[in-house]
Specification:
heterodimer; A: 309 residues; mainly alpha; two-stranded antiparallel ribbon; two-stranded antiparallel sheet; B: 266 residues; Rossmann fold; six-stranded mixed sheet; four-stranded antiparallel sheet; 9 helices; globular
Protein backbone atom coordinates (compact mmCIF):
# COMPACT_ATOMS: atom_id res chain seq x y z
CA UNK A 1 0.00 0.00 0.00
CA UNK A 2 2.82 2.37 0.92
CA UNK A 3 4.58 1.58 -2.34
CA UNK A 4 1.41 2.22 -4.25
CA UNK A 5 0.89 5.52 -2.40
CA UNK A 6 4.42 6.62 -3.17
CA UNK A 7 4.19 5.86 -6.85
CA UNK A 8 0.95 7.80 -6.93
CA UNK A 9 2.69 10.81 -5.38
CA UNK A 10 5.58 10.50 -7.80
CA UNK A 11 3.37 10.17 -10.83
CA UNK A 12 1.46 13.21 -9.64
CA UNK A 13 4.70 15.15 -9.38
CA UNK A 14 5.79 13.97 -12.83
CA UNK A 15 2.45 14.94 -14.34
CA UNK A 16 2.50 18.36 -12.65
CA UNK A 17 6.08 18.88 -13.77
CA UNK A 18 5.32 18.04 -17.40
CA UNK A 19 2.15 20.13 -17.57
CA UNK A 20 3.71 23.15 -15.84
CA UNK A 21 6.72 22.83 -18.11
CA UNK A 22 4.57 22.89 -21.24
CA UNK A 23 2.47 25.83 -20.03
CA UNK A 24 5.48 27.81 -18.79
CA UNK A 25 7.49 27.17 -21.94
CA UNK A 26 4.59 28.30 -24.14
CA UNK A 27 4.27 31.46 -22.02
CA UNK A 28 8.00 31.94 -22.44
CA UNK A 29 7.52 32.28 -26.20
CA UNK A 30 5.49 35.41 -25.56
CA UNK A 31 7.57 36.79 -22.67
CA UNK A 32 10.97 35.78 -24.00
CA UNK A 33 10.50 36.52 -27.68
CA UNK A 34 7.73 39.07 -28.14
CA UNK A 35 8.71 40.66 -24.79
CA UNK A 36 5.07 41.14 -23.88
CA UNK A 37 4.47 40.40 -20.21
CA UNK A 38 1.34 38.33 -20.64
CA UNK A 39 -0.59 37.69 -17.43
CA UNK A 40 -3.54 35.92 -19.04
CA UNK A 41 -1.87 32.58 -19.74
CA UNK A 42 -3.73 30.79 -16.93
CA UNK A 43 -7.02 31.76 -18.58
CA UNK A 44 -5.91 30.14 -21.86
CA UNK A 45 -4.85 27.04 -19.93
CA UNK A 46 -8.28 27.09 -18.26
CA UNK A 47 -10.07 27.49 -21.60
CA UNK A 48 -8.49 24.19 -22.62
CA UNK A 49 -9.55 22.49 -19.39
CA UNK A 50 -13.17 23.59 -19.72
CA UNK A 51 -13.25 22.68 -23.40
CA UNK A 52 -12.49 19.11 -22.34
CA UNK A 53 -14.92 19.28 -19.39
CA UNK A 54 -17.80 20.45 -21.55
CA UNK A 55 -17.12 18.15 -24.50
CA UNK A 56 -16.55 15.06 -22.36
CA UNK A 57 -19.36 15.63 -19.90
CA UNK A 58 -21.97 16.22 -22.59
CA UNK A 59 -20.80 13.15 -24.41
CA UNK A 60 -19.69 15.13 -27.50
CA UNK A 61 -16.23 13.64 -27.40
CA UNK A 62 -13.66 12.50 -24.91
CA UNK A 63 -11.00 12.07 -27.55
CA UNK A 64 -7.94 14.09 -26.54
CA UNK A 65 -7.09 14.96 -30.14
CA UNK A 66 -10.58 16.20 -30.99
CA UNK A 67 -10.87 18.13 -27.73
CA UNK A 68 -7.36 19.45 -28.22
CA UNK A 69 -8.26 20.73 -31.67
CA UNK A 70 -11.42 22.41 -30.38
CA UNK A 71 -9.49 24.02 -27.52
CA UNK A 72 -6.77 25.10 -29.96
CA UNK A 73 -9.30 26.89 -32.17
CA UNK A 74 -10.89 28.74 -29.26
CA UNK A 75 -7.53 29.66 -27.70
CA UNK A 76 -6.17 30.79 -31.06
CA UNK A 77 -9.13 33.13 -31.58
CA UNK A 78 -8.77 34.62 -28.11
CA UNK A 79 -4.99 34.97 -28.52
CA UNK A 80 -5.26 36.69 -31.87
CA UNK A 81 -7.61 39.29 -30.39
CA UNK A 82 -5.16 39.84 -27.53
CA UNK A 83 -2.27 40.07 -29.98
CA UNK A 84 -4.08 42.88 -31.81
CA UNK A 85 -4.60 44.48 -28.43
CA UNK A 86 -0.90 44.28 -27.66
CA UNK A 87 -0.16 46.13 -30.90
CA UNK A 88 -2.45 49.01 -29.96
CA UNK A 89 -1.31 49.21 -26.36
CA UNK A 90 2.18 48.30 -25.29
CA UNK A 91 4.34 48.07 -22.21
CA UNK A 92 2.69 48.58 -18.84
CA UNK A 93 -0.71 49.20 -20.39
CA UNK A 94 -0.67 45.81 -22.02
CA UNK A 95 0.18 44.17 -18.69
CA UNK A 96 -2.88 45.81 -17.13
CA UNK A 97 -5.10 44.80 -20.05
CA UNK A 98 -3.79 41.24 -19.97
CA UNK A 99 -4.39 41.06 -16.22
CA UNK A 100 -7.91 42.37 -16.70
CA UNK A 101 -8.60 39.79 -19.38
CA UNK A 102 -7.37 37.00 -17.09
CA UNK A 103 -9.56 38.23 -14.27
CA UNK A 104 -12.74 38.78 -16.27
CA UNK A 105 -12.42 35.63 -18.38
CA UNK A 106 -12.27 33.40 -15.30
CA UNK A 107 -14.93 35.45 -13.50
CA UNK A 108 -17.26 35.15 -16.51
CA UNK A 109 -16.60 31.42 -16.72
CA UNK A 110 -17.33 31.06 -12.99
CA UNK A 111 -20.71 32.69 -13.44
CA UNK A 112 -21.52 30.76 -16.59
CA UNK A 113 -22.48 27.76 -14.48
CA UNK A 114 -23.82 25.63 -17.33
CA UNK A 115 -20.26 25.54 -18.70
CA UNK A 116 -18.10 25.71 -15.60
CA UNK A 117 -20.29 24.18 -12.92
CA UNK A 118 -19.91 27.35 -10.85
CA UNK A 119 -18.03 27.05 -7.55
CA UNK A 120 -18.08 23.23 -7.57
CA UNK A 121 -16.65 23.00 -11.05
CA UNK A 122 -17.14 20.16 -13.49
CA UNK A 123 -16.27 16.91 -11.77
CA UNK A 124 -16.49 13.23 -12.48
CA UNK A 125 -15.27 13.78 -16.03
CA UNK A 126 -15.06 10.59 -18.11
CA UNK A 127 -11.60 9.16 -18.82
CA UNK A 128 -10.25 10.24 -22.20
CA UNK A 129 -9.30 8.27 -25.28
CA UNK A 130 -6.84 8.86 -28.07
CA UNK A 131 -7.96 7.50 -31.43
CA UNK A 132 -10.18 5.00 -29.63
CA UNK A 133 -7.54 3.89 -27.13
CA UNK A 134 -8.60 4.50 -23.54
CA UNK A 135 -6.14 6.44 -21.39
CA UNK A 136 -6.70 4.75 -18.07
CA UNK A 137 -3.32 4.15 -16.43
CA UNK A 138 -1.18 6.88 -14.92
CA UNK A 139 1.67 5.73 -17.15
CA UNK A 140 -0.47 6.45 -20.21
CA UNK A 141 -1.19 9.99 -18.98
CA UNK A 142 2.48 10.57 -18.34
CA UNK A 143 3.33 9.27 -21.80
CA UNK A 144 0.87 11.68 -23.45
CA UNK A 145 2.12 14.58 -21.32
CA UNK A 146 5.72 13.69 -22.16
CA UNK A 147 4.89 13.67 -25.87
CA UNK A 148 3.31 17.11 -25.55
CA UNK A 149 6.37 18.35 -23.63
CA UNK A 150 8.75 16.99 -26.27
CA UNK A 151 6.73 18.57 -29.07
CA UNK A 152 6.73 21.92 -27.28
CA UNK A 153 10.45 21.66 -26.59
CA UNK A 154 11.03 20.75 -30.23
CA UNK A 155 9.19 23.90 -31.28
CA UNK A 156 11.26 25.95 -28.82
CA UNK A 157 14.47 24.56 -30.28
CA UNK A 158 13.26 25.28 -33.80
CA UNK A 159 12.40 28.85 -32.77
CA UNK A 160 15.91 29.35 -31.41
CA UNK A 161 17.55 28.34 -34.66
CA UNK A 162 15.10 29.31 -37.38
CA UNK A 163 14.90 32.55 -39.39
CA UNK A 164 11.38 32.93 -38.00
CA UNK A 165 12.68 32.85 -34.42
CA UNK A 166 15.34 35.39 -35.38
CA UNK A 167 12.59 37.77 -36.49
CA UNK A 168 10.68 37.23 -33.24
CA UNK A 169 13.75 38.13 -31.21
CA UNK A 170 14.37 41.15 -33.41
CA UNK A 171 10.78 42.24 -32.78
CA UNK A 172 11.40 42.03 -29.04
CA UNK A 173 14.61 44.07 -29.32
CA UNK A 174 13.62 46.88 -31.70
CA UNK A 175 10.25 46.64 -33.47
CA UNK A 176 10.69 49.84 -35.49
CA UNK A 177 14.01 48.60 -36.88
CA UNK A 178 12.30 45.38 -37.88
CA UNK A 179 9.82 47.42 -39.94
CA UNK A 180 12.70 49.02 -41.81
CA UNK A 181 13.95 45.49 -42.55
CA UNK A 182 10.70 44.87 -44.40
CA UNK A 183 8.78 42.81 -41.86
CA UNK A 184 5.39 43.75 -40.47
CA UNK A 185 5.11 43.24 -36.74
CA UNK A 186 1.43 42.26 -36.75
CA UNK A 187 1.85 38.87 -38.38
CA UNK A 188 4.73 37.91 -36.13
CA UNK A 189 2.92 38.96 -33.00
CA UNK A 190 -0.28 37.18 -33.94
CA UNK A 191 1.76 34.07 -34.78
CA UNK A 192 3.61 33.87 -31.48
CA UNK A 193 0.55 34.74 -29.37
CA UNK A 194 -1.49 32.16 -31.27
CA UNK A 195 1.02 29.32 -30.92
CA UNK A 196 1.55 30.11 -27.26
CA UNK A 197 -2.20 30.13 -26.54
CA UNK A 198 -2.82 26.93 -28.49
CA UNK A 199 -0.15 25.02 -26.57
CA UNK A 200 -1.49 26.26 -23.21
CA UNK A 201 -5.04 25.22 -24.14
CA UNK A 202 -3.96 21.77 -25.30
CA UNK A 203 -2.13 21.32 -21.99
CA UNK A 204 -5.36 22.39 -20.27
CA UNK A 205 -7.30 19.64 -22.06
CA UNK A 206 -4.85 17.01 -20.85
CA UNK A 207 -4.80 18.46 -17.34
CA UNK A 208 -8.59 18.34 -16.93
CA UNK A 209 -8.72 14.83 -18.39
CA UNK A 210 -6.04 13.68 -15.95
CA UNK A 211 -7.60 15.25 -12.87
CA UNK A 212 -11.16 14.37 -13.90
CA UNK A 213 -12.13 17.80 -12.59
CA UNK A 214 -12.14 21.35 -13.91
CA UNK A 215 -12.67 24.21 -11.47
CA UNK A 216 -12.36 27.90 -12.29
CA UNK A 217 -10.45 28.45 -9.03
CA UNK A 218 -7.56 26.39 -10.44
CA UNK A 219 -7.03 28.86 -13.28
CA UNK A 220 -7.43 32.12 -11.38
CA UNK A 221 -5.09 35.07 -11.01
CA UNK A 222 -2.93 33.15 -8.52
CA UNK A 223 -1.98 30.60 -11.14
CA UNK A 224 -1.56 33.37 -13.71
CA UNK A 225 1.04 35.07 -11.54
CA UNK A 226 2.63 31.76 -10.57
CA UNK A 227 3.16 31.00 -14.28
CA UNK A 228 4.86 34.35 -14.86
CA UNK A 229 6.96 33.64 -11.76
CA UNK A 230 8.00 30.23 -13.14
CA UNK A 231 9.16 31.86 -16.37
CA UNK A 232 11.00 34.72 -14.67
CA UNK A 233 12.55 32.59 -11.92
CA UNK A 234 13.62 29.94 -14.42
CA UNK A 235 14.87 32.40 -17.01
CA UNK A 236 13.07 34.36 -19.74
CA UNK A 237 13.76 33.07 -23.21
CA UNK A 238 15.24 29.80 -21.93
CA UNK A 239 13.62 26.38 -22.27
CA UNK A 240 15.89 24.95 -19.57
CA UNK A 241 14.80 27.81 -17.35
CA UNK A 242 11.14 26.93 -17.80
CA UNK A 243 11.95 23.32 -16.91
CA UNK A 244 13.77 24.41 -13.73
CA UNK A 245 10.91 26.71 -12.79
CA UNK A 246 8.30 24.02 -13.41
CA UNK A 247 10.32 21.48 -11.40
CA UNK A 248 10.48 23.89 -8.51
CA UNK A 249 6.70 24.23 -8.43
CA UNK A 250 6.11 20.52 -8.93
CA UNK A 251 8.41 19.53 -6.04
CA UNK A 252 7.75 22.29 -3.53
CA UNK A 253 4.01 21.66 -3.43
CA UNK A 254 4.16 17.95 -2.40
CA UNK A 255 7.07 18.62 -0.03
CA UNK A 256 4.97 21.16 1.83
CA UNK A 257 2.00 18.80 1.87
CA UNK A 258 4.26 16.26 3.59
CA UNK A 259 4.75 18.66 6.47
CA UNK A 260 1.09 18.14 7.40
CA UNK A 261 0.32 21.83 7.69
CA UNK A 262 -3.20 23.10 7.20
CA UNK A 263 -4.20 23.92 3.64
CA UNK A 264 -4.16 27.67 4.22
CA UNK A 265 -0.73 27.54 5.89
CA UNK A 266 0.63 25.46 3.03
CA UNK A 267 -0.61 28.00 0.52
CA UNK A 268 0.85 30.87 2.53
CA UNK A 269 4.23 29.16 2.98
CA UNK A 270 4.32 28.35 -0.70
CA UNK A 271 3.65 31.96 -1.64
CA UNK A 272 6.35 33.06 0.77
CA UNK A 273 8.87 30.69 -0.80
CA UNK A 274 8.10 31.93 -4.30
CA UNK A 275 8.19 35.56 -3.25
CA UNK A 276 11.62 35.01 -1.68
CA UNK A 277 12.82 33.14 -4.76
CA UNK A 278 11.57 35.86 -7.08
CA UNK A 279 13.36 38.58 -5.13
CA UNK A 280 16.50 36.45 -4.84
CA UNK A 281 16.59 35.61 -8.53
CA UNK A 282 15.91 39.15 -9.70
CA UNK A 283 18.61 40.47 -7.36
CA UNK A 284 21.29 37.84 -7.97
CA UNK A 285 20.51 36.13 -11.27
CA UNK A 286 18.90 38.63 -13.61
CA UNK A 287 18.63 36.00 -16.32
CA UNK A 288 17.01 33.44 -14.03
CA UNK A 289 17.94 30.09 -12.51
CA UNK A 290 19.62 29.02 -15.78
CA UNK A 291 22.37 31.40 -14.72
CA UNK A 292 22.92 29.42 -11.50
CA UNK A 293 26.27 28.13 -12.76
CA UNK A 294 27.51 31.71 -13.07
CA UNK A 295 26.48 32.63 -9.52
CA UNK A 296 29.99 32.56 -7.96
CA UNK A 297 31.27 34.72 -10.81
CA UNK A 298 28.38 37.18 -10.48
CA UNK A 299 28.86 37.48 -6.72
CA UNK A 300 32.60 37.97 -7.18
CA UNK A 301 32.05 40.68 -9.76
CA UNK A 302 29.57 42.39 -7.50
CA UNK A 303 31.85 42.35 -4.45
CA UNK A 304 34.80 43.51 -6.54
CA UNK A 305 32.69 46.32 -7.96
CA UNK A 306 31.71 47.26 -4.42
CA UNK A 307 35.28 47.36 -3.10
CA UNK A 308 36.60 49.41 -5.99
CA UNK A 309 34.04 52.14 -5.36
CA UNK B 1 26.95 63.10 -60.35
CA UNK B 2 23.72 65.07 -60.10
CA UNK B 3 20.80 63.75 -62.09
CA UNK B 4 19.85 65.05 -65.48
CA UNK B 5 16.37 66.66 -65.65
CA UNK B 6 14.85 63.98 -67.88
CA UNK B 7 15.82 61.18 -65.49
CA UNK B 8 13.23 60.26 -62.83
CA UNK B 9 14.59 61.16 -59.40
CA UNK B 10 14.92 58.21 -57.04
CA UNK B 11 13.13 60.16 -54.34
CA UNK B 12 10.82 63.11 -54.43
CA UNK B 13 8.75 64.74 -51.73
CA UNK B 14 6.10 67.16 -52.92
CA UNK B 15 5.02 69.81 -50.41
CA UNK B 16 5.24 67.21 -47.68
CA UNK B 17 4.19 68.11 -44.14
CA UNK B 18 3.98 66.39 -40.81
CA UNK B 19 2.22 68.00 -37.88
CA UNK B 20 2.09 66.93 -34.26
CA UNK B 21 -1.05 68.55 -32.94
CA UNK B 22 -0.65 72.19 -33.96
CA UNK B 23 3.11 71.98 -34.40
CA UNK B 24 4.32 71.49 -37.97
CA UNK B 25 7.60 69.60 -37.61
CA UNK B 26 7.94 69.35 -41.39
CA UNK B 27 6.22 72.12 -43.27
CA UNK B 28 5.71 71.80 -47.01
CA UNK B 29 9.13 70.38 -47.81
CA UNK B 30 9.82 69.52 -51.44
CA UNK B 31 13.04 67.75 -52.17
CA UNK B 32 14.28 65.78 -55.12
CA UNK B 33 17.14 63.31 -54.96
CA UNK B 34 18.73 62.01 -58.14
CA UNK B 35 19.98 58.49 -58.58
CA UNK B 36 23.52 58.11 -57.21
CA UNK B 37 23.42 61.42 -55.34
CA UNK B 38 24.85 61.92 -51.88
CA UNK B 39 22.77 64.63 -50.26
CA UNK B 40 23.16 66.01 -46.75
CA UNK B 41 20.22 67.30 -44.80
CA UNK B 42 21.48 69.95 -42.42
CA UNK B 43 19.97 72.43 -40.04
CA UNK B 44 19.73 73.25 -36.36
CA UNK B 45 18.34 70.83 -33.78
CA UNK B 46 14.59 70.58 -33.96
CA UNK B 47 14.54 71.66 -37.62
CA UNK B 48 12.59 68.53 -38.56
CA UNK B 49 15.38 66.50 -40.15
CA UNK B 50 14.63 63.26 -38.34
CA UNK B 51 10.88 63.81 -38.76
CA UNK B 52 11.45 64.14 -42.50
CA UNK B 53 13.41 60.85 -42.38
CA UNK B 54 10.54 59.23 -40.51
CA UNK B 55 8.09 60.46 -43.11
CA UNK B 56 10.25 59.31 -46.04
CA UNK B 57 10.63 55.84 -44.49
CA UNK B 58 6.92 56.03 -43.65
CA UNK B 59 7.39 55.21 -39.98
CA UNK B 60 5.31 58.37 -39.68
CA UNK B 61 2.58 59.01 -42.23
CA UNK B 62 2.73 62.52 -43.70
CA UNK B 63 -0.11 64.88 -42.73
CA UNK B 64 -0.21 66.21 -46.28
CA UNK B 65 1.86 66.16 -49.44
CA UNK B 66 3.16 63.42 -51.64
CA UNK B 67 6.03 60.95 -51.49
CA UNK B 68 7.45 59.46 -54.69
CA UNK B 69 10.02 56.68 -54.87
CA UNK B 70 11.45 55.98 -58.34
CA UNK B 71 8.47 57.80 -59.77
CA UNK B 72 5.84 55.70 -57.97
CA UNK B 73 3.51 57.29 -55.45
CA UNK B 74 4.32 55.70 -52.10
CA UNK B 75 2.53 58.24 -49.86
CA UNK B 76 0.31 55.49 -48.48
CA UNK B 77 2.74 52.57 -48.64
CA UNK B 78 3.57 50.75 -45.40
CA UNK B 79 7.11 51.11 -44.01
CA UNK B 80 7.83 47.40 -44.44
CA UNK B 81 6.78 47.50 -48.09
CA UNK B 82 8.88 50.59 -48.68
CA UNK B 83 11.85 48.77 -47.14
CA UNK B 84 11.27 45.91 -49.60
CA UNK B 85 11.08 48.41 -52.48
CA UNK B 86 14.61 49.58 -51.68
CA UNK B 87 14.64 52.28 -49.00
CA UNK B 88 16.92 51.52 -46.07
CA UNK B 89 17.51 53.69 -43.04
CA UNK B 90 19.51 53.98 -39.87
CA UNK B 91 18.48 55.64 -36.64
CA UNK B 92 20.13 58.37 -34.62
CA UNK B 93 19.84 56.05 -31.58
CA UNK B 94 21.08 53.13 -33.72
CA UNK B 95 18.32 50.64 -32.71
CA UNK B 96 20.20 47.43 -33.26
CA UNK B 97 18.72 44.15 -32.08
CA UNK B 98 20.81 44.37 -28.93
CA UNK B 99 20.52 40.78 -27.69
CA UNK B 100 21.47 39.35 -31.09
CA UNK B 101 24.91 39.02 -32.67
CA UNK B 102 26.12 41.40 -35.37
CA UNK B 103 25.72 38.48 -37.77
CA UNK B 104 22.08 37.90 -36.82
CA UNK B 105 21.35 41.63 -36.96
CA UNK B 106 22.39 41.67 -40.58
CA UNK B 107 20.71 38.33 -41.33
CA UNK B 108 17.33 39.82 -40.41
CA UNK B 109 17.80 42.35 -43.21
CA UNK B 110 18.94 39.67 -45.66
CA UNK B 111 15.97 37.36 -45.02
CA UNK B 112 13.16 37.02 -47.54
CA UNK B 113 9.67 38.21 -46.74
CA UNK B 114 8.45 34.59 -46.66
CA UNK B 115 10.70 33.87 -43.68
CA UNK B 116 8.36 36.05 -41.64
CA UNK B 117 5.67 33.39 -41.78
CA UNK B 118 5.42 30.23 -39.70
CA UNK B 119 4.80 28.37 -42.94
CA UNK B 120 8.36 29.10 -44.05
CA UNK B 121 9.67 26.55 -41.55
CA UNK B 122 7.36 23.90 -42.89
CA UNK B 123 8.56 24.26 -46.49
CA UNK B 124 10.67 21.53 -47.98
CA UNK B 125 13.98 21.11 -46.15
CA UNK B 126 15.77 21.69 -49.41
CA UNK B 127 14.15 25.13 -49.87
CA UNK B 128 14.96 26.01 -46.27
CA UNK B 129 18.56 24.91 -46.78
CA UNK B 130 18.93 26.90 -50.00
CA UNK B 131 17.56 30.02 -48.37
CA UNK B 132 19.84 29.60 -45.34
CA UNK B 133 22.81 29.30 -47.66
CA UNK B 134 21.83 32.43 -49.56
CA UNK B 135 21.42 34.43 -46.34
CA UNK B 136 24.73 33.14 -45.01
CA UNK B 137 26.57 34.20 -48.16
CA UNK B 138 24.95 37.64 -48.18
CA UNK B 139 25.65 38.29 -44.49
CA UNK B 140 29.29 37.20 -44.72
CA UNK B 141 29.80 39.36 -47.80
CA UNK B 142 28.18 42.37 -46.09
CA UNK B 143 30.25 41.98 -42.91
CA UNK B 144 33.35 41.83 -45.03
CA UNK B 145 32.38 44.97 -46.99
CA UNK B 146 31.85 46.95 -43.78
CA UNK B 147 34.98 45.54 -42.12
CA UNK B 148 32.92 43.87 -39.43
CA UNK B 149 33.92 40.24 -39.97
CA UNK B 150 35.99 40.06 -36.73
CA UNK B 151 32.96 41.00 -34.61
CA UNK B 152 30.40 38.87 -36.48
CA UNK B 153 29.71 36.68 -33.44
CA UNK B 154 29.64 39.54 -30.90
CA UNK B 155 26.31 40.46 -29.36
CA UNK B 156 25.32 43.85 -30.80
CA UNK B 157 24.71 45.43 -27.40
CA UNK B 158 28.34 44.76 -26.49
CA UNK B 159 29.91 46.30 -29.60
CA UNK B 160 31.62 49.69 -29.49
CA UNK B 161 29.44 52.62 -30.55
CA UNK B 162 31.34 52.99 -33.82
CA UNK B 163 30.89 49.30 -34.60
CA UNK B 164 27.19 49.55 -33.80
CA UNK B 165 26.85 52.41 -36.28
CA UNK B 166 28.63 50.35 -38.90
CA UNK B 167 26.32 47.39 -38.26
CA UNK B 168 23.38 49.75 -38.80
CA UNK B 169 24.74 50.77 -42.21
CA UNK B 170 25.60 47.15 -43.02
CA UNK B 171 21.97 46.18 -42.35
CA UNK B 172 20.82 48.59 -45.08
CA UNK B 173 23.42 47.11 -47.37
CA UNK B 174 22.23 43.55 -46.71
CA UNK B 175 18.72 44.57 -47.64
CA UNK B 176 20.13 45.89 -50.95
CA UNK B 177 18.67 49.33 -50.39
CA UNK B 178 19.06 51.60 -53.41
CA UNK B 179 18.34 54.64 -51.25
CA UNK B 180 19.84 54.84 -47.78
CA UNK B 181 18.71 57.34 -45.19
CA UNK B 182 21.54 57.68 -42.69
CA UNK B 183 20.61 59.57 -39.52
CA UNK B 184 23.78 61.08 -38.03
CA UNK B 185 26.14 58.27 -39.07
CA UNK B 186 29.17 60.08 -37.60
CA UNK B 187 27.83 61.55 -34.37
CA UNK B 188 29.50 60.35 -31.20
CA UNK B 189 32.53 59.02 -33.09
CA UNK B 190 36.15 60.11 -32.81
CA UNK B 191 38.08 61.47 -35.79
CA UNK B 192 39.46 58.08 -36.87
CA UNK B 193 36.08 56.37 -36.65
CA UNK B 194 34.44 59.27 -38.50
CA UNK B 195 36.92 58.88 -41.32
CA UNK B 196 36.11 55.18 -41.39
CA UNK B 197 32.38 55.86 -41.75
CA UNK B 198 33.05 58.50 -44.41
CA UNK B 199 35.00 55.90 -46.38
CA UNK B 200 32.10 53.44 -46.19
CA UNK B 201 29.70 56.13 -47.40
CA UNK B 202 31.96 56.96 -50.33
CA UNK B 203 32.33 53.29 -51.16
CA UNK B 204 28.55 52.84 -51.10
CA UNK B 205 28.12 55.87 -53.33
CA UNK B 206 30.64 54.62 -55.86
CA UNK B 207 28.72 51.34 -55.89
CA UNK B 208 25.64 53.23 -57.04
CA UNK B 209 23.74 53.63 -53.77
CA UNK B 210 21.91 56.91 -53.34
CA UNK B 211 22.43 58.45 -49.92
CA UNK B 212 20.51 61.04 -47.97
CA UNK B 213 22.13 61.78 -44.64
CA UNK B 214 21.47 63.94 -41.63
CA UNK B 215 24.75 65.12 -40.15
CA UNK B 216 25.95 67.82 -37.80
CA UNK B 217 29.61 67.30 -38.51
CA UNK B 218 30.30 69.70 -41.38
CA UNK B 219 33.66 68.12 -42.24
CA UNK B 220 31.84 64.90 -43.08
CA UNK B 221 29.20 66.81 -45.03
CA UNK B 222 31.87 68.58 -47.08
CA UNK B 223 33.74 65.34 -47.60
CA UNK B 224 30.96 63.07 -48.78
CA UNK B 225 27.97 65.13 -49.91
CA UNK B 226 27.49 66.45 -53.43
CA UNK B 227 24.69 68.67 -52.30
CA UNK B 228 23.23 69.94 -49.06
CA UNK B 229 19.68 70.87 -48.16
CA UNK B 230 19.18 73.28 -45.30
CA UNK B 231 16.11 72.74 -43.16
CA UNK B 232 14.92 75.23 -40.52
CA UNK B 233 11.65 75.06 -38.63
CA UNK B 234 10.40 72.37 -40.95
CA UNK B 235 10.97 74.39 -44.10
CA UNK B 236 13.65 74.13 -46.75
CA UNK B 237 15.54 77.41 -46.66
CA UNK B 238 18.48 76.62 -48.88
CA UNK B 239 19.92 74.06 -51.24
CA UNK B 240 23.36 74.13 -52.84
CA UNK B 241 26.80 72.54 -52.91
CA UNK B 242 27.82 72.09 -49.25
CA UNK B 243 30.66 74.64 -49.41
CA UNK B 244 28.54 77.38 -50.92
CA UNK B 245 25.58 76.63 -48.66
CA UNK B 246 27.76 76.71 -45.55
CA UNK B 247 29.36 79.96 -46.71
CA UNK B 248 25.99 81.72 -46.71
CA UNK B 249 26.08 84.10 -43.75
CA UNK B 250 22.30 84.05 -43.43
CA UNK B 251 22.15 80.25 -42.95
CA UNK B 252 25.23 80.27 -40.75
CA UNK B 253 23.38 82.68 -38.50
CA UNK B 254 20.39 80.30 -38.26
CA UNK B 255 22.62 77.32 -37.66
CA UNK B 256 25.30 78.72 -35.41
CA UNK B 257 23.03 81.26 -33.78
CA UNK B 258 20.95 78.30 -32.72
CA UNK B 259 24.01 76.45 -31.52
CA UNK B 260 25.15 79.52 -29.57
CA UNK B 261 21.76 79.81 -27.91
CA UNK B 262 21.96 76.14 -27.09
CA UNK B 263 25.44 76.19 -25.57
CA UNK B 264 24.65 79.29 -23.55
CA UNK B 265 21.64 77.62 -21.97
CA UNK B 266 23.54 74.45 -21.04
Amino acid sequence: MIVFGLTLVYSNITMQLLIYFVVALSLNFVIGYARALSIHHAALFGIGAFTYAVMAQRGWSNDLILCGLAAAVIAAMVSVILAFGSLRISGDYFIVASFAFQFFAIEALFNWTSISGGPNGDYGLPTPTILGLAISSTAAYILVAALLAVATLGFAIWLRRSPYGRLLRAMGDAPSALLTAGFGVLRLKVGVFGISGIIAAVAGVLYAAYLGVAQTATFDVNLAILLVAIVVIGGTGSAVGSLLGAALIAFVQPLLTNLNLSATTTAAVQQLIFAALLVGVVALLPRGLVQLGDLPKLVMRRSRGGSSR
Amino acid sequence: MTSTPEETPILQTVEISRAFGGFRAVDGASISIGRGDVVALIGPNGAGKTTLFNVISRLLPPTSGQLLFEGADVTHTSPQRLARMGIGRTFQDVRLFDTMTAWDNIAVFAQTEASGTLRSGLLSPRAVGREAKRVRARVDETLDYAGLSPVAATVAGELSFAQQKKVAIARCLAQQARLMLLDEPASGLDAVEREDVAKIIEKLSSDGVTILLVEHNMDIVREVAHRAIFLAEGKIVGEDAPDRLLASSELAEIYFGHLRAETSTT
